[in-house]
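Propose amino acids for all 1388 sites.
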């Protein structure tokens, strides 16, 4: 009896537990939902619900020890089937994953089981699918093996067929033939419920009976809109006769299909004959909107057929033809069908196609870039051009040509350059940013998986695109008249007491003299003498501290109808946090030109220095600091480089014997070269006396001339902006006590411009928007200060920059204002400053608005104690941070043995010319306060000068700015609970990503800086080693990746050098990089191997190894419009190296799930790399002539061709020569065995001594390069150890690192030549090759090659790819070949 009672109680408990579980799944507790909403911010409600559900499922799965856990897992899956509309099932023999999808085909995994369900449980799942009343889209991805999968697919098929709600079906199983899948699932077409069908499987091709069945279903269906098939078989899934039958229902004849609008014939194996059939279908079809023929075998002839069909087709909206070898003729035909000037005769071009994909593997030919130029310049209908992985864009020059052509395009809104290796370098980045200033139609440029993304440049492009999308200045003001810009700025910068204010006053006096009638009192000489007298008198009653400029003084002047504002920037570093904010976008929509006057006093200032002359090093450091400051704060540009004029003051005080001036001029010449592609440093250095108007006149005239030329060069601006500049100048003169206007008053002022008045029939909202956009344009130009969040406009920037900021951001030591204490000022004191600047008259102005404006500019933030913290005023009493000696402490002082440590350094990509300025980090402190100021109700956020720290999710974080000893940022983290991979995820997404975004911000960031990530030595983080002693304890992430790729060593260990108290040490590279970066390395290696495969035309067996996941069309409402950001009309399920993660916060369980998935992908990719390498080795060794482009003589093996050089060292060991070394002229020439199974170094080969003089350097260089290319290929395919290179190239990674990154090793090779300190390009011409080859032939002629090199000439006689080819083999391979009768020995 007791046993039965226990059993009944257990049943009751089970039922209660199950009810509780489903209550959790269906309804998140209000407290959790509210907290999640706060964390997610703007994250869609649907995504947040899925995260809660996923977390709940994870909790359930973790209770596997419970007797009912297995049932709970099944119930969770059944619940999802009964409630979700779109589900994806990933089923393998060892796992079960369930994901839900949004409308953009982005997946959110909600369930994972590391074991499969049993047959009965699967039957319950299948029955649930059959009875579901909510499911509309089902995607089945199987990996079960052929027999098991077919049985289960049949059951799923019956369930789908019986369900009347399912409209979209996708079935993928690479072990099941495409013929079986299509034959099984095409009967769903007859149900008149299916909208989308995708099938992906393996070979063989569709049988004619299957095609007939499919064609019948297509004719009958009235609901199908999207049909896509693909196969992993490189032969494709349909032959020509089957294709004709398959396309017949789309020919618009009797009984044709009228419902299908999206059609994907992917990887179908279509050849030129098949392309002719596709073209015929395009000529007759009038309903198809989306067509894809990617990944087939369409050549030039087939592309011509399709191009002709496009001329007559008026319905097709989107066309995919990439990954087809269409070549130059094919691309020319396509371009001709889409452009007017290229059309033949009376044939008109296609004007209805909007989206064209013509990227991967179409071929590489010289005229390709010219054809792309023609397409973007002359086509006026395409909205999106996808060129991802284009072989035509493998070098920067080709990319720049395309970008220059895009400046003339008026229709494209999206250009996709994903994976294009030529998208790299400062020139490309500058050209893109220039493009965005002149092309106002372009809304999106995709740069993922490009070198520009890797080096941080893509962040700058994204920031500009986001600003354009937000402002939409040209869209709102479109149609209004444009004029030449007529506004300019002059920035005076330099250290304190350089003479900037004196120079500015003298320039304005000179202009005043010019504008007045000539008389002796207005002469420059008289004014100059009078100015000196007044200045000397003022000096008698003043001291150095009272003359110091506060903030920025802004003064206006005009000449020749050009309005000029002079921005006199205070030199003290207290103000640098604000200086960054006013350096303009040189081509902003405000249309302002600008120039910089870098003013340097040759003498030390202050009573303690008397008249002491500065050293040359002091002057040089001053120049470099300000040149870096200007370069870092100016947008990268190739067309509008900032002009800098260097001005030396107090030259009249130099003694006649002083030699400092010519030495300074020489230094400026070297700096001009150093900064030549970033800044335009004036050819003249103006050495003058700032008090003398005569002395400054040449500078004044030069400045005027430059500004006029720059205004002529800049793009036109709206005439309304130009008129408002004049109106505002007049207003400020007449209303000097009203520096700020409420929005209504400013809008009334805008009514003085005719184009901004509310006209009859014009909507007031449109006029208001035009005025708002005009204010933003004037803000970009620097005439006003405005933000849409505030209801006022600062019409006098001088008031805000000087009276407000100049008073608040003043030095504690120089200005005794007791309201400011170590960066903090109370609201009461701050209001006192504002009232004083207004002279008590607020003019209806709300004080809180000004405070919010400063907060918006990241200058300060409010604290709980009713104080305002201004980070730029934080003090470092002992100056330890300045010298990098500060002792750091973790936020908590707990001691645990389980702490894990990681750290990174964010450095400038071009650290010799750009820096993270002194003003950047205080703004970062404010930005991080918004992100981490309060975590779970606790305020752990702490600040000090150049330092911040906080706790988050069980992790302690310290961020330190190195200041002038490095201008970089170190981030150090530790956690006792989180894994290193989780910490890295948090580091990259929650800490580094905001830093990248802030740096790229057009207003708050350093527009000229590209940030790069480095890894800090973990021992430095653990011991919190002071910055000064961890200076060199960092390795750049990109450099580490290149080392691993160069050495093909996935067990690489990074060595740390000794520094200070730190001893030498080492860390595993994979642990340092983390899983995400490690996966990127594998992706890049796979990409390299695929390029090698293409270059030697490997056969079909290899192709099967590289298919990852299917490609399919994403159909929907993809019409482009101005109100919606450009939708991605084509989605890749396989997104290598691309993060689509849009969350603001994620649970640890969710991140760990992603990391586990990544671990599995890494393992599979390592296996794939090994498989690719094994298959590539014989293919490459058998087709080396295709890679090396040898002459006929070498191809016929007149002499051996695999040459390399060695040099002897003091220890008599020989190593392979990998670079040209000055003085190294006597070398040993060696030859490799050319065995088709794998090249290798011949052991104990004697070789020949060879000498090169200066007249034969090019010959040596050419032969050296082709030998290194062979070695590089062997490294890529993992055959270098077997080839005997391990001991002969001890520093393999370092020596071959540049080799792997070179897109064309024989066309653009980098070698250190002579006494040069850097790598430089030495192009190898066709003539150079011929000369080098002839030298080799002559050198080896008459020599006993068998004795010197242990090689003999043979011919391959057996079956296989190498049959009939000639090679030089070593004795071992010769014996083996003769023994199995695959070789014939030849005389030589």
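Proposal:
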């Amino acid at each position: 009896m007791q046993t039965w009672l226990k059993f009944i109680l257990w049943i009751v408990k089970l039922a209660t537990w199950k009810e509780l579980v489903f209550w959790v799944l269906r309804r998140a507790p209000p407290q959790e939902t509210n907290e999640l909403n706060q964390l997610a911010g703007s994250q869609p409600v649907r995504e947040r619900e899925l995260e809660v559900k996923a977390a709940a499922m994870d909790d359930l799965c973790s209770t596997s020890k419970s007797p009912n856990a297995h049932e709970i897992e099944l119930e969770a899956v059944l619940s999802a089937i009964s409630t979700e509309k779109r589900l994806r099932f990933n089923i393998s023999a060892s796992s079960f994953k369930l994901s839900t999808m949004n409308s953009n085909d982005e997946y959110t995994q909600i369930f994972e089981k590391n074991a499969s369900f049993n047959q009965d449980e699967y039957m319950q799942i299948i029955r649930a699918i059959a009875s579901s009343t909510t499911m509309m889209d089902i995607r089945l991805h199987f990996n079960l093996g052929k027999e098991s999968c077919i049985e289960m697919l049949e059951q799923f098929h019956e369930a789908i067929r019986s369900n009347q709600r399912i409209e979209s079906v996708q079935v993928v199983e690479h072990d099941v033939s495409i013929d079986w899948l299509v034959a099984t699932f095409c009967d769903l077409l007859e149900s008149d419920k299916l909208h989308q069908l995708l099938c992906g499987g393996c070979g063989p091709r569709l049988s004619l009976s299957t095609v007939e069945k499919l064609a019948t279903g297509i004719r009958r269906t009235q609901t199908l809109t999207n049909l896509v098939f693909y196969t992993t078989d490189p032969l494709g899934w349909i032959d020509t006769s089957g294709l004709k039958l398959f396309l017949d229902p789309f020919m618009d004849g009797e009984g044709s299909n009228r419902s299908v609008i999206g059609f994907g014939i992917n990887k179908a194996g279509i050849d030129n004959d098949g392309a002719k059939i596709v073209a015929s279908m395009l000529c007759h079809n009038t309903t198809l909107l989306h067509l894809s023929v990617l990944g087939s075998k369409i050549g030039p002839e087939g592309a011509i057929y399709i191009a002709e069909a496009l001329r007559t087709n008026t319905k097709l909206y989107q066309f995919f033809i990439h990954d087809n070898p269409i070549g130059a003729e094919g691309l020319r035909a396509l371009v001709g069908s889409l452009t007017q000037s290229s059309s033949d005769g009376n044939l008109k071009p296609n004007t209805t196609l909007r989206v064209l994909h013509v990227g991967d593997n179409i071929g590489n030919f010289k005229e390709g870039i010219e054809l792309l130029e023609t397409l973007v310049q002359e086509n006026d209908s395409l909205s999106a051009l996808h060129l991802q992985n284009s072989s035509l864009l493998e070098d920067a020059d080709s990319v720049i040509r395309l970008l220059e052509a895009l400046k003339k395009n008026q229709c494209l809104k999206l250009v996709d350059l994903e994976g294009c290796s030529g998208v790299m370098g400062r020139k490309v980045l500058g050209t893109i940013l220039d493009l965005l200033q002149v092309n106002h139609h372009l809304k999106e440029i995709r740069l993922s998986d490009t070198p520009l993304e890797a080096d941080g440049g893509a962040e700058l492009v994204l920031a500009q695109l986001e600003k354009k999308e937000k402002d939409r200045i040209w869209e709102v003001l479109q149609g209004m008249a444009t004029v030449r810009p007529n506004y300019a700025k002059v920035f005076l910068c330099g250290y304190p007491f350089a003479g900037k204010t004196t120079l500015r006053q003298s320039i304005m006096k000179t202009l005043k003299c010019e504008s007045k009638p000539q008389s002796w009192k207005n002469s420059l000489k008289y004014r100059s003498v009078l100015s000196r007298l007044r200045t000397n008198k003022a000096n008698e009653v003043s001291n150095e501290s009272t003359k110091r400029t506060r903030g920025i003084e802004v003064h206006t002047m005009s000449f020749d109808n050009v309005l000029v504002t002079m921005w006199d920037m205070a030199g003290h570093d207290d103000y640098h946090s604000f200086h960054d904010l006013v350096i303009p976008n040189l081509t902003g929509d405000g249309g302002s030109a600008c120039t910089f006057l870098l003013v340097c006093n040759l003498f030390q200032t202050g009573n303690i220095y008397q008249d002491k002359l500065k050293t040359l090093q002091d002057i040089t450091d001053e120049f470099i600091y300000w040149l870096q400051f200007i370069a870092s704060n100016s947008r990268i540009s190739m067309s509008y480089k900032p002009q800098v004029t260097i001005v030396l003051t107090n030259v009249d005080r130099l003694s006649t014997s002083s030699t400092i001036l010519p030495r300074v001029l020489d230094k400026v010449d070297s700096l001009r070269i150093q900064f030549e592609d970033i800044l335009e440093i004036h050819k003249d250095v103006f050495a003058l006396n700032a008090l003398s108007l005569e002395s400054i006149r040449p500078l004044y005239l030069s400045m005027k001339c430059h500004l006029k030329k720059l205004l002529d060069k800049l793009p036109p601006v709206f005439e309304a902006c130009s008129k408002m500049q004049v109106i505002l100048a007049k207003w400020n003169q007449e209303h000097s006590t009203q520096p700020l206007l409420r929005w209504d008053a400013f809008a009334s002022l805008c009514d003085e411009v005719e184009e901004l008045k509310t006209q009859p029939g014009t909507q007031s909202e449109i006029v208001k928007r035009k005025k708002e956009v005009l204010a933003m344009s004037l803000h970009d130009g620097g005439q006003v200060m405005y933000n849409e969040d505030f209801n006022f406009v600062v019409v006098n920037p001088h008031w805000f920059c000087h009276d407000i900021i100049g008073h608040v951001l003043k030095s504690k030591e120089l200005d005794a204002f007791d309201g400011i204490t170590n960066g903090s000022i109370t609201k009461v004191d701050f209001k006192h400053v504002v009232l004083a600047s207004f002279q008590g008259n607020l003019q209806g102005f709300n004080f809180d608005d000004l405070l919010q404006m400063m907060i918006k500019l990241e200058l300060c933030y409010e604290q709980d104690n009713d104080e305002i913290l201004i980070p730029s005023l934080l003090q470092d009493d002992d100056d330890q941070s300045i010298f990098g000696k500060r002792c750091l402490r973790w936020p908590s002082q707990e001691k645990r043995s389980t702490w894990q440590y990681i750290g990174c350094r964010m450095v400038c990509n071009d650290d010799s010319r750009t820096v993270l300025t002194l003003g950047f980090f205080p703004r970062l402190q404010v930005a991080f306060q918004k992100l981490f100021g309060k975590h779970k109700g606790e305020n752990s956020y702490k600040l000090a000068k150049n330092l911040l720290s906080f706790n988050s999710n069980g992790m302690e974080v310290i961020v330190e700015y190195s200041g002038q000893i490095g201008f970089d940022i170190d981030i150090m983290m530790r956690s006792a609970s989180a894994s290193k991979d989780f910490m890295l995820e948090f580091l990259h997404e929650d800490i580094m990503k905001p830093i990248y975004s802030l740096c790229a911000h057009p207003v708050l960031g350093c527009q000229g800086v590209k940030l790069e990530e480095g890894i800090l030595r973990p021992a430095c983080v653990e011991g919190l080693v002071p910055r000064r002693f961890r200076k060199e304890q960092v390795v750049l992430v990109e450099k580490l990746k290149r080392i691993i790729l160069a050495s093909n060593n996935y067990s690489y260990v990074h060595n740390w050098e000794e520094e200070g108290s730190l001893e030498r040490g080492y860390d595993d590279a994979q642990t340092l990089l983390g899983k995400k970066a490690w996966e990127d390395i594998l992706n890049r290696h796979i990409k390299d191997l695929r390029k090698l495969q293409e270059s030697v035309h490997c056969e079909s067996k290899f192709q099967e190894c590289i298919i990852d996941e299917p490609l399919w069309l994403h159909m929907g409402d993809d019409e482009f419009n101005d109100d919606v950001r450009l939708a991605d009309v084509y989605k890749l399920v396989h997104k290598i190296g691309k993060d689509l993660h849009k969350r603001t916060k994620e649970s640890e369980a969710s991140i760990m799930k992603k990391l586990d998935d990544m671990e599995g992908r890494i393992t599979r990719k390592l296996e794939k790399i090994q498989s690719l390498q094994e298959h590539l080795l014989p293919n490459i060794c058998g087709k080396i002539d295709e890679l090396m482009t040898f002459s006929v003589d070498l191809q016929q093996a007149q002499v051996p061709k695999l040459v390399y050089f060695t040099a002897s060292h003091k220890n008599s060991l020989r190593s392979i020569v990998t670079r040209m070394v000055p003085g190294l002229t006597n070398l040993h020439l060696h030859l490799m065995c050319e065995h088709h199974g794998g090249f290798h170094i011949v052991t104990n080969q004697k070789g020949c001594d060879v000498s090169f003089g200066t007249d034969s350097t090019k010959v040596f260089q050419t032969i050296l390069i082709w030998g290194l290319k062979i070695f590089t290929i062997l490294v890529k395919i993992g055959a270098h150890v077997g080839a005997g290179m391990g001991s002969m190239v001890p520093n393999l990674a370092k020596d071959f690192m540049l080799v792997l990154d070179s897109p064309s090793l024989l066309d653009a090779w980098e070698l250190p030549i002579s006494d040069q300190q850097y790598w430089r390009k030495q192009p190898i011409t066709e003539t150079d090759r011929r000369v080098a080859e002839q030298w080799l032939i002559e050198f080896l002629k008459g020599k006993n090659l068998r004795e010197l090199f242990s090689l003999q000439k043979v011919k391959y006689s057996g079956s296989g790819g190498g049959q009939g080819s000639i090679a030089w083999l070593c004795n071992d391979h010769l014996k083996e070949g003769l023994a199995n009768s695959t070789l014939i020995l030849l005389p030589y």
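The two ends are 101 Å apart (CA to CA). The longest helix spans residues 1148-1182.
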